[in-house]
Amino acid sequence: MRKHFLVLLILTTVSLTVNAQTRGVKVGYIDMEYILQNVPDYTEAKNQLEQKAQKWKQEIEVKKNDITKLKDALKTERVLLTKELIEEREEEIKFQETELLDYQQKRFGPNGDLVTQKAVLTQPVQDQVFNAVQDIAEAKKYDFIFDKTSDMTMLFAAKRYDISDQVVRAISRASKRSQLTKKQLKEEEAKEAAEDMVDENPALAERQKKLDERKAAREKLVAERKAAQQAKRDAAAAAREAKKNGTAVPKTETAKTATDSTQVETGEVETKETAKPTAKDSAAAAAADKRKKTAEERAKIIEDRKKAAEERRKKTLEDREKAKQEKQEKAKEGKQD
């Protein structure tokens, strides 16, 4: 079969060389293993099958342990058993071993459950791959498409001819289309057309990559400027609140960041030697210290007044209690007289 295929391939290639001057032969290939790993339905079913295989292996291990126990028991008790009992037990062990081999063949043999279920699992995906390859070949005018994982040896394959990702996208698109609205379907088709165009033109793909990088850089710059502006607004709001309350608020890291960002954008960055405090800044700092000192003195006066009032209240309560007790004692003395 392989020889016939190679002969057919050679004859077809020779026939196409007549048109080689007007149009070159377009060749592509797929990697079936890569495609299967990237199809969600196949991956999920494969995991389920692996769980089954693991369960079968555990059952085989249990049977092996049972046979080992029978052999050990026979070895220990052989001297105490009759010839008939020994033969009976040996026959039982042989039966168990034969049964174990049959079970192993049933589950993991060439025609076992694992191979059969794997073929059943793979077949639908292979059909999808075949249909996707046909559609891609017709739409993009491919002359040959090979399977990299087949029996035909591929000694070299340039990555630009690999259409495995296109096949995966085609399968994913087919499953998505049934769940989309008309508007979403139209948008998806436009997106697919752009992806296909990039696949067809490597130079366009490189150009698109550069455009995406520039776009990301612009978005990052805009985000940084917005963050700097927001930090500046927050610092201004904090300064207004401090002025309103009559307290001095130290310059926060956020405000510093906002100032630094603004200076970087305008090119007005000052060094440590040139950034000296002005007379206006010194006066403002002195006024802020004075307001802070006045507020602290006022708070101290209020606290002293509260303490004095509390002491007066306590003394008044004590005097009332003392007068009440004296009155009660006098009334008690009057009754005794």
Automatic annotation (TrEMBL):
Biased composition (Basic and acidic residues): 184-194, 224-244, 269-279, 294-337
Gene3D superfamilies named among the record's database cross-references: Skp domain
Keywords: Coiled coil, Signal
InterPro entries membership: Chaperone_Skp, Skp_dom_sf
Biased composition (Polar residues): 255-265
Region (Disordered): 178-204, 224-337
Molecular function per GO: unfolded protein binding
Record's keyword annotation contains Chaperone: no
Record has Transcription regulation as a keyword: no
Signal sequence, start to end: 1-20
BP-aspect Gene Ontology terms: protein stabilization
Cellular component terms (Gene Ontology): cytosol
Pfam families listed in its UniProt record: OmpH
Ranges in a coiled coil: 39-106
Family: Belongs to the Skp family.
Protein's recorded name: Periplasmic chaperone for outer membrane proteins Skp
Source organism of this protein record: Flavobacterium caeni
